[in-house]
Amino acid sequence: MTTDLYDYVSTREAILDRVRRMLRDAMKLRIEPEAIDPDAPLFGTGLGMDSVDAIELVVQLDTVFGLTLAGSPHVSSKLRTVNTIVDAIMEISDES
Amino acid sequence: MSLEDEYRSVRHRAALSRMDHVGLVRLSGDDMTEALDTVCSGDLWVRDGRMLQTLILDEQGQPVADVYVCPDDDACILMFEGITTEEISALLARYAGPELAVQVEDLRPAYELISLHGPYAWEVLSKWLTPDVIGLPYLSFYHFDRGTCFRAGKTGEYGYDVAIRTEHAEQAWGELLNLVEGLGGGEVSLGTLDLCALENGFFSVRHGPVEGLTPLELQLQWRVSARKRFPGATAIQERRAQGMNRRLTHFVARESVKTGDPLHGPDAPVGRVTAAAYSPGLGGVAGMALLDVSVAHPGIDAFFVPAPEANRPIRTVSSPLLFNRSLLVDPHRHSCATRDASNDPPLWQGSLP
C-alpha cells in the first residue's frame, strides 16, 4: 500500500470509528460499533433512526466534529449513511 | 423504451413495472409469528400495518431471499424475492417444525403485483387511488377495495407496490400507465430497476453471486439478529469470530468494467467486481466490488481493472451514488407539471476517474 493510500485509509478509519461510537453512545443504538455497517441507511430501514434522531444527530455532529449542517441546503444528502457522514467530516477537514 | 428513457422515468418522472418475479404469501395460524421468527434473520419487531425488511439465509449464512414482513391483524403478509412460495413453505416446515400451527396461502393466483417508482410516483397513485396515499409512511401498507398498497421500493425514489386482485389487474395497469405517461414516464424493465437499486445501495438477489458472502460482507448486519437462532446464525458467528476480511464497496468508472473483473491496487490485487452496469445518470459505470477490508472505503482512486491496452481505473464512492430527486420533491407542495427543477443540484455530484 502506498503512503498516500495508507494515510487516507488510516484517517478515514479513525473518523469512521468515532462516528460509529458517537452513534452508539449519543444516539443510543443498542449495537456494537463494528456492527454498524458503513453503508447502512441511517433512517427508515437500516439503523432505523427517525426525525427526532435526525435533530440530535445534527447537534452531535456539530458538537463532536464541528460539522455544521443546521441551515445548510440539502442536509438530507449528507445524512444518508455513516459513510456519507464520514465524507462530510473529511470534506471540512480538507478545507481547514 | 430505451434504457435512457426508462432511467429518466424512474429518476425524474414516474415509472410502472410488473413484479412477476416477486412472491406474495399470507401466513396465518396461532404460531405464525414464532414460525416466521425461526426462518428470518432479523428481529421481527414491527407493528401492524408497517413493513420490515429482513433476509432468509442458508446454513452457510448466504442470503437466499430478500423479504418484507408485513403484519396484518391476525395474519402476516410476506413479499419476497429470491425463492419461490414452495421454498418458503418448505423452509417453514423444516425449521419451525410440524408442531407449530402455521398456514401458508399463496396470494399470487388471486393478486398481481404492479410497482410504481419515481419522484412523482405518489402523484400517479394519488390520482388513481386516493390523495391520502401521500401520507402513507415509508414501509407501511394499507388495504383498499381491490387490493393492498405497500409503500416500499428499492430505487431511492418514491416507491409503491400495489397488489391488485387479478380480475382488476389489466384495467388497473392501463389506467396507471396512462397516468404515468401523462407525466412523461412509462413502463420500465426489471433491469432498469436493478440498476437504480445498485446506484442507491439497495441489496438485490440479482446483483451478482453471493457465494461465500454473508450479511457481514454485504453490509447487511442491520438485518441480522444478535439475539436469536435462525438458519445461518452459526456461520455468521464463526465469520465474526474469525474476523471479516472482505467488504462490499461501491465504485464508479468511466470505461467498461464488468461483473467478475479483478481489481488491483498499486502493488497487489484488492478484490473483484460483483456487479457493474452503465448508468445514464453517471455517464459511466456504477458498480459494487468485494474489496479487502483494509481498503474497503469510499474515496479511493488507486484501484483499477488490469487490461492489456490500458488499465481501467475505478473510484470507490459512498452509496447512495445519486442525489435522488425524491429528496427534493414534496408531495404536499409540488406537482410534476409545476415544480421548477431548474435550480436542482445535479443528480450525480461526483466525477468519474
Offer a few descriptive terms.
heterodimer; A: 96 residues; mainly alpha; Non-ribosomal Peptide Synthetase Peptidyl Carrier Protein, Chain A; 4 helices; 59% helix; B: 353 residues; alpha+beta; Gyrase A, domain 2; Elongation Factor Tu (Ef-tu), domain 3; six-stranded mixed beta sheet; 22% helix
Summarize the structure.
The complex is a heterodimer of chains A (96) and B (353). Chain A has 96 residues and is mainly α.
- CATH topological fold name of chain A: Non-ribosomal Peptide Synthetase Peptidyl Carrier Protein, Chain A
Characterize the quaternary organization of these chains.
heterodimer
| CATH-assigned homologous superfamily of chain A | ACP-like
Q: From the 3D coordinates, which CATH architecture of the largest domain in chain B would you assign?
A: 2-Layer Sandwich
CATH classification class of the largest domain in chain B: Alpha Beta
Describe this structure in words.
The complex is a heterodimer of chains A (96) and B (353). Chain A is built from four helices and no strands. Chain A has a single domain, classed as Non-ribosomal Peptide Synthetase Peptidyl Carrier Protein, Chain A, CATH 1.10.1200.10. With 96 residues, chain A is mainly α. The longest helix of chain A is centred in the first third of the chain and has 24 residues, at 3-26. In chain B, a hairpin with a 5-residue loop joins β3 (52-57) and β4 (63-72). Chain B has seven helices and 17 strands. Chain B has 353 residues and is an alpha+beta fold. In chain B, the strands form three sheets. Chain B has a six-stranded mixed β-sheet with strand order 8-9-10-7-1-11. The chains are: A mainly alpha (96), B alpha+beta (353). Chain A binds chain B through residues 1-2, 4-5, 8-9, 12-13, 16, 31, 35-41, 44-48, 74, 76-77, 80-81, 83-84, 86-87, 90, and chain B through 53, 138-139, 201, 219-222, 226, 247-250, 265-267, 294-295, 297-300, 302, 318-320, 323, 327, 345.
